[in-house]
Structure formats: C-alpha cells, structure tokens
Design goal:
The chain is an all-alpha fold. The chain is built from four helices and no strands. Helix 1 packs antiparallel against helix 4 and helix 2 runs antiparallel to helix 3. It is found in: Membrane.
C-alpha cells in the first residue's frame, strides 16, 4: 500500500533536454533569395516600392487614410530591406536570435499592417464619386479619373494580396 498522496507512476521526464536550442535554418548570402522567406521579402520590397510610388503620385484627398498607407508602405519597405540585409551579409549567424520565429513574426506583422493599409486604400478608392466640396456648385469628385485608376492600382499592388 502506498502512503497517502503518493503515486505509483514515476514523474514525467524533463522535456527541456530533448529540444535542441534554436538555430538558424535560413541560409546566408544570396542563397536566402532561393528560399520562400527570401523570395517573399524580395517581393515585399518590389510591391512596396510600387505602392509607395503609386500613392505618392496622386493628390491626397484624405490625408489621414492615405497617410497611414504611406507610413505602412515606407516603414515595411525599410524594415524589409534591413531584414533581408541581415541574411545577405551574414549577420544572422552572429546574432543569437531565433530567426525562424523572428521571420514568422515579421511576415505576420507586415501582413496585418499591409492588409490594414489595403483596406484604407480601397476605402479611399471607393469614395471616388463623392464631391470634393459639399457646398460647391461645381461637381468635382474626390479623385479624378487618373487618380482613381492609380488608386485602384495601388490597392491591387498591396503586398497583402497573397505575397505574405
């Protein structure tokens, strides 16, 4: 008979020794561009540049909405270049970080921010037929035909559409 509170089963083994420490599984140098993560970062840079150019080429009818779109595009573009440079120049091997987790968090965060920017840019585009001034006798819309087309292109080029 076992004493009160005792168990006949041995305690479970400590799981810590069975998990290897985090290591970099993403290659350094130009080999990073051959991986899915490197290709995604490269496409984020390309499409982010296009969105940046398209939004900047229009008149800004709604500064609050399109200002956030520009902030996301420029910030994500700069961070993508920094993140890609860490692997291109081999700094990932010198910095003790779980790069797999950092890569996952980076792509998740950029997806969330780019998707929000896409929604705001699409909302700006959908207001195309509203008059610019409600008290005016001239019926000038918020976006001209050219700006409307550029805004559609900026919404469609947003990297949240399947790149992440």
């Amino acid at each position: 008979m076992l004493p009160r509170g005792a168990s006949s089963m041995p305690p479970p083994p400590n799981p810590a020794p069975y998990f290897p420490p985090p290591r970099v599984t993403l290659p350094s140098g130009l080999e990073i561009l051959r991986t899915f993560s490197g290709a995604v970062i490269f496409l984020e840079i390309v499409f982010g540049t296009i969105v940046w150019i398209l939004v900047a080429s229009t008149q800004i009818p709604l500064p609050l909405l399109q200002g956030w779109v520009m902030f996301v595009a420029v910030t994500a573009w700069c961070l993508s270049i920094v993140f890609l440079s860490v692997f291109l120049f081999g700094y990932a091997n010198r910095i003790a970080v779980n790069w797999n987790q950092a890569d996952f968090i980076f792509h998740g965060a950029t997806f969330v921010f780019y998707f929000g920017a896409f929604l705001l840019q699409a909302a700006t585009t959908s207001l195309h037929y509203l008059p610019r001034k409600f008290n005016s006798t001239i019926q000038e819309t918020i976006l001209s035909g050219r700006e409307y087309n550029i805004s559609i292109a900026a919404s469609g080029m947003n990297p949240s559409h399947g790149v992440n």
